[in-house]
Amino acid sequence: MLTAQFLLLGAVLFCIGVYGVLARKNAVMVLMSIELILNSVNLNLLAFSVRHGSVDGNTFALYIIAIAAAEVGVGLAMVLLIYRNRRTIALDDLSEMKG
Amino acid sequence: MLAADLLVAQNIGFGIIALLMVVGALRVVTVNNVVHAALWLVVVLSGAAAQYLLLSAEFVAITQVLVYVGAVMVLFLFGTMLTRARIGAENDLNNKNWKIAIPVSLLMLGVMSWVIVDGFSDEKLIDNPGEMTQVPVQLISDDIFGPYLLPFWALSFVLLVAVIGAIVLARKD
């Protein structure tokens, strides 16, 4: 197995996630795309962990999983709050802070 | 090169799972039904757990299944069903200028692939495949509660703040 194949898979998933964040209007779909991005980073960390024979990458991957869980919790709470106040979660309509 | 150095079975497994993950990820960002997108995300996250097993990180793989496939997906489905009047296909899930995102992400993919291929062209993941062993959980816990104790505390506070914040944001007053 080559190091590059895991890194390339991570890069492909990252770019698909970036596309989802940019293209989607529904806030829940944007959160899903962010999960794709975080997973690609985990893949890179674990590949480098094996490459260098160290467990630090595993530790970082576990921390990232915990951070992602917290992020989804707060993000969905905000989406619910926006939905309760606006009756929509389309990100195009949230333009109060546009300036 | 010896046949054992090639790790044929692992490479075939990697290829199949990688293909599943890429197809699933593309479906997540293109399908026009939020519940279907969440189910395709399950495919991608389970495939990631399988890749972690190939990378001999079994503890992270099991944590991935527990946290992502178990908890985060339930949160997503709850979020979808609490904010949607109807469950089903809809055709206004994309921005009005979503086409700009395609060249942006393709450009990023090109640059990143170029850098990766340039830097790691034929570098093997492990020089001696016989040495690839499972990572003992004891080593991970020594790592977490040893040199990385301070980030662990910070992470505990982040989780506490997230729980309190989610309750405060979502409660009716």
TrEMBL record, chain A:
It is found in: Membrane. GO terms for cellular component: NADH dehydrogenase complex. GO terms for biological process: ATP synthesis coupled electron transport. Coiled coil: none annotated. Its main location: membrane. One of its GO terms (molecular function) is oxidoreductase activity, acting on NAD(P)H. Keywords: Membrane, Transmembrane, Transmembrane helix, Transport. InterPro entries: NADH_UbQ_OxRdtase_chain4L/K (IPR001133), NUOK/Mnh_C1-like (IPR039428). HAMAP family: NDH1_NuoK (MF_01456). Belongs to the complex I subunit 4L family. NCBIfam families: PRK05715.1-2 (NF004320), PRK05715.1-3 (NF004321), PRK05715.1-5 (NF004323). This is Unannotated protein. It comes from freshwater metagenome.
